[in-house]
Amino acid sequence: MAVKRLQNYINGEWVDSTTDEFVEIINPARGELLCECPMSTRAELDSAIQAAQEAYPDWRNTPPVARARYLHRLIELLEDNFNELSVVQTTEHGKTIDESRGETRRGIEMVEVASGIPTTMQGFNLEDIAHGIDEYAIYQPLGVFSCIAPFNFPFMVPLWFLPFAIACGNTFVVKPSPRTPMSQSKLFEMLDDVGLPPGVVNMVNGGAEVADGCMEHPDMKGVTFVGSTPVARHIYKKCGETGKRVIAQAGAKNFIVIMPDAEIDKAMVSLISSFFGNAGQRCLSGANLLVVGDDKTYRNVVDKFVEAAAAIRVGDGLDESVQMGPIQNIASKQRIVGMIEKGLEEGAKLTLDGRNLNLVGDLPEDCFLNPSVFEDVTLDMSLAREEIFGPVASVLRAGDLDEAIDMIHTVPFGNSSAIFTNNGKWARQFQHDVIAGNVGINVGIVAPMSFFPFGGMKDSFFGILHGQGRDVVRFFTESKIVITRWF
Ligand code: NAD
C-alpha cells in the first residue's frame, strides 16, 4: 500500500511538495510507519511567504473584532475534534493520551486568549500633553511572521504564536518539526475549514533549509523559534544579521529543590509527573532533584521518589492505563542511553536503571526506556549540567537554601526552577533570587497559562519579548505615536 505523504498548505490550498526528500514518520510505541514528511524546498517556502505577503494588506484592514471571529470558529472546530487531535499527538510523539489531551487543551486556550485581541491590542493616550495637543500610541501589525517548531509539543507550540499573530493582523507561515509533523497537518485542516482568506496562514514542512529561508527572506518580518539551545543561538544570530524580530525559546536543565520541611508525600505526584511526564521530553521537566537536609531527610525523599518512579506503567500511550510512553525516536533513545553510560563513567550511582525494560503489553522495545534515577550526582558531571531530554533524574544534595541556589546558578540554563517547602521565607528568598524564567513554589511543572508570557533566562531564551500573553501581542505589533493639534 502506498504510504501517505503529507502536503504543504500554501495560499489556502493543499499542495504536494516538489521535493524528492522525505522523512518517515514512525509511531514510536508500535514501530509502524505512519506517513512521510516532505523536506520542502526553498522555492516552496518562498511561494508561501509570497502568498502571506499578498494576503497581508486586506487582512491588516480587516477589523480586529472580525479577525477574532475566525478564531471563535477555530475554537469550535478544535473542540469538535478534541479527541482526534489528541490521538494524533500520541501516535506520532508517543506521549500518553492524557498528556495529549492536556496539550490539546493548552493549545485551545491560546486561541481563546488570542481572540481577545480587540482588547489586548489597544493602545493608550493622553489628552492635553500641551495646551490643545493630544498624544496617543497605536499598535499596528507588521506583515509576515513564522514559527519554527520543536518535536515535543507538536500541536501546541505553534499555537503559542499563530493565533496571536493573525489576530494582530499579521500573516503566518508554520514550519512544523519534521519528526512530528502530523499534528500541524491536522490543525491546518481545521484552519482550512475556518475559511480564512487565502495566504493568511500557511504551512511548509521541512528542516533547516526551510528554517533558514524564513530568516533570510526579505518579506519575513519576524521569526519565532522553540527548540534546542544550539539551534536557538543560530536562529538568534541569523535574525540579528538579517534584521528580523525574534523570539527563540531554548533548552533547559530544571532544578527542583526539596527543603527539609517539604510535604514529600503530597509533593510526590507532582514530582513524578515533572521528571517523567512526557518521558522527560519537556522543556519544563524536572531534571535535577536537589535535596536539602540531613541524611535521614535525604533517604526519606529519595527512597519514596525511586519507589514511585519504579512503579510508573510504561507502554503505548494510547492505553489509558499507561503513565509514560516511549521516547519519540530511536536516535533520541540512543542519545539518552549514552548519557546514562556517561553518568556511570563519571561516577554517579544508578539507583534505578531504566534500561531494564518493564513494559505494559507486547511492544517493540526500540524506543522505550523506563525511568532512571541517579544518586551521588555532582555539579561537574554531565548528568547535572547537560539537557538529557529523557526520563532520567539526577539527585544532588545541598546543605542549605543558599547553597542550593548557588548550585542552580552554576548550570547554564534558566528555564524553570521549583522549591517544595512550607516555609514562606524560604519560598520568598527562592522566588526573589533564583535565575529562572518560571518559578514554582510547591508546583513541579511551572507551565505559564496562555494569558501569561512564557520564556526562560540564560541559555534557555534568546530575545526580549516572550511567547504567549501580553508579550507576544507586543512582539507581533509595532507601536506608533501620534501627536495631534487642531487649529
Ligand atoms: P531542535 O532544535 O532540534 O529543532 C527545533 C526546530 O529547529 C525544528 O523545526 C528543526 O527542524 C529546526 N532545526 C533543526 N536544526 C536546525 C538548523 N541547524 N537550522 C535551522 N533550523 C533547524 O529541537 P527539538 O529536538 O525538536 O526540540 C527539543 C528541544 O526544544 C529541547 O532542547 C527542549 O528543551 C526545547 N524546547 C524548549 C521549549 C521552551 O519553551 N524553552 C519548549 C519546548 C521545547
How are the strands of the largest sheet arranged? 15-17-18-13-12-20-21
Work out the helix count.
16
The number of strands is: 24
Ligand inventory reads: nicotinamide-adenine-dinucleotide
How much strand content do the residues show?
15-25%
If you consult CATH, what is the topology of the largest domain?
A: Aldehyde Dehydrogenase, Chain A, domain 1
Query: How much is the radius of gyration in Å?
Result: 23 Å
Tally of structural domains: 2
Largest sheet at a glance? Answer: 7 strands, mixed
Give the CATH architecture of the largest domain. 3-Layer(aba) Sandwich
Low-pLDDT runs? none
Q: Quick one: CATH class of the largest domain? A: Alpha Beta
Q: Which descriptor suits the 3D outline?
A: globular
The CATH homologous superfamily of the largest domain = Aldehyde Dehydrogenase, Chain A, domain 1
Give the distance, in angstroms, between the N- and C-terminal Cα atoms: 76 Å
Helix content: 25-40%
Overall average residue pLDDT:
98
Structural class assignment: alpha/beta
Notes on the structure:
The protein is α/β, with parallel strands linked by helices. It folds into two domains: about 270 residues, 3-Layer(aba) Sandwich (Aldehyde Dehydrogenase, Chain A, domain 1); about 190 residues, Aldehyde Dehydrogenase, Chain A, domain 2 (3-Layer(aba) Sandwich). The chain is about 40% helix and about 25% strand. It contains 16 helices and 24 strands. Strands 15-17-18-13-12-20-21 form a seven-stranded mixed beta sheet, sandwiched between helices. Strands 9-8-7-10-11-23 form a six-stranded mixed beta sheet, with helices on both faces. A hairpin with a 6-residue loop joins strand 3 and strand 4. The longest helix is centred in the first third of the chain and has 19 residues. The radius of gyration is 23 Å and the shape is globular. It starts with 7 loop residues before the first strand and ends with a strand. Nicotinamide-adenine-dinucleotide binds next to helix 8 and helix 9.
